[in-house]
Design goal:
The protein is mostly helical. It has a single domain, classed as Orthogonal Bundle (Tetracycline Repressor, domain 2), CATH 1.10.357. The chain contains eleven helices and no strands.
C-alpha cells in the first residue's frame, strides 16, 4: 500500500518555505536600504516597507539593526567568494587566485553601483571571522607564503593587504569612479607589493577574465532587481 504523506509534514514544509521567502525579501531590501542610507541608525521601517512585511515580522528574524547588517554582509560576501572559487577547477597558485579575487570584486561593484555602495558602507563587516573568504584564506595562504613566490612570512598579513586593497578600491570606485583598467592596475600593484616579479604580475593582472557570474537567485542579483524596480517606480 502506498504511503500517504502526512498533512502535518506538508504544513511544516510550507511554513519553512514561506519563512525562507520572507527572510530573502528582508535581506534584499536591507542591502538596498543600507546602500542608500548607510549603516548608522535604525533602518527597520524602510526595510519592512520595501520587503512588504509588518514591522513585527522583522523581529522574528533579526533582533537588531547590526545583526541584520552582519547577516547581509556575510551572505553577500560569501556569494562573491563562491562565484570567484567557481572559476577554478582546483585551488590555484597564489598570484592567479589573488588576481582573480581583486579584479572580480572591483569589476562587480563597477557593474552594480548600489552593491559597491553597500560594501563600502558595510566595511569591516565583510571581513568577519566567519566569512568564507577568511576561511579559505586560512587554507590557501599559508601554502602560498611557504611557496616563496610572495615576499611575506605571515599569511595573516597577506590577507590584510589583499582584503584591505579591495575595500580601498571599492571606496575609490564609489566616491570618485575609476579610470579604465583600474581593477587591473590595482591588481598589478598589489601583486608587485607582495613580491611577485613585475612581468609575471602584469601577465596575471591583465589576463583575460570573464565577468563574474552570480546565481539568478543570489542575494546580490535579487537586490539588483529590487533596486531597479524601486528606481523605476520613483521616476
Amino acid at each position: 500500500m502506498p504511503k500517504i504523506p502526512k498533512i502535518e509534514d506538508h504544513r511544516v514544509r510550507v511554513a519553512a518555505e514561506r519563512r525562507e521567502r520572507t527572510r530573502k525579501r528582508l535581506l534584499e531590501a536591507a542591502l538596498v536600504v543600507f546602500s542608500q542610507h548607510g549603516v548608522e541608525g535604525s533602518v527597520v521601517d524602510e526595510v519592512t516597507t520595501i520587503a512588504g512585511v509588518a514591522r513585527g515580522t522583522f523581529y522574528n528574524y533579526f533582533r537588531t539593526n547590526e545583526e541584520l547588517l552582519s547577516t547581509v554582509a556575510t551572505e553577500a560576501t560569501n556569494e562573491v567568494v563562491n562565484a570567484i572559487e567557481a572559476r577554478f577547477d582546483e585551488p590555484p597558485d597564489g598570484p592567479p587566485r589573488i588576481a582573480a579575487g581583486i579584479r572580480s570584486w572591483l569589476e562587480l561593484v563597477q557593474r552594480y553601483p548600489h552593491v559597491g555602495a553597500f560594501f563600502r558602507r558595510a566595511g569591516l563587516y565583510t571581513l568577519d571571522l566567519n566569512v568564507r573568504s577568511r576561511i579559505l584564506a586560512r587554507d590557501y595562504m599559508p601554502r602560498w607564503v611557504a611557496s616563496g613566490k610572495l615576499n611575506l612570512k605571515c599569511p595573516e598579513l597577506l590577507w590584510d593587504i589583499v582584503s584591505g586593497s579591495i575595500l580601498a578600491g571599492i571606496n575609490t570606485i564609489v566616491l570618485t569612479g575609476a579610470p579604465k583598467d583600474y581593477a587591473e592596475e590595482m591588481t598589478l600593484r598589489v601583486l608587485v607589493a607582495l613580491g611577485v616579479d613585475f612581468e609575471e604580475a602584469a601577465s596575471v593582472a591583465f589576463a583575460p577574465l570573464e565577468p563574474l557570474v552570480l546565481p539568478p537567485d543570489s542575494l546580490i542579483e535579487r537586490s539588483v532587481a529590487r533596486f531597479e524596480t524601486l528606481r523605476t517606480a520613483a521616476q
